[in-house]
Amino acid sequence: MVVNPSGDTLIEGSTTVEETLYISINIEETLEVRQKVPVFSSRVPNLYKQGL
């Protein structure tokens, strides 16, 4: 399954057989959503575990 940044399913594979899916994605759309929803601005890296 491939989902766009807005949560819409772009392509979905079979639930019964193995298959390879190909799709072109719009990188510009991803960058636009990242600017509108700045999830990385609230990161606190010093609280995350390192060296698992």
Global structural class: alpha+beta
How many helices in DSSP terms?
1
Query: From N to C, what is the helix and strand string?
Result: EEH
Beta-strand percentage range: 5-15%
Helical fraction equals 10-25%
> How far is the first residue's CA from the last residue's CA?
28 Å
Mean pLDDT: 87
Specify Rg, calculated over alpha carbons.
16 Å
Low-confidence stretches: none
What is the chains' assembly state? single chain
The tally of beta strands, per DSSP, is: 2
Shape: flat
The main β sheet shows up as: 2 strands, antiparallel
**Biggest sheet: strand arrangement:** 1-2
Short structural description:
With 52 residues, the protein is an alpha+beta fold.
What does this structure look like?
It contains 1 helix and 2 strands; from the N terminus they run ββα. It has 52 residues and is an alpha+beta fold. Strand 1 (2-3) and strand 2 form a beta hairpin. The two termini are 28 Å apart.
Features:
52 residues
Describe the protein's topology.
Blueprint: E1 2-3, E2 9-11, H1 27-36
Antiparallel strand pairs: 1-2
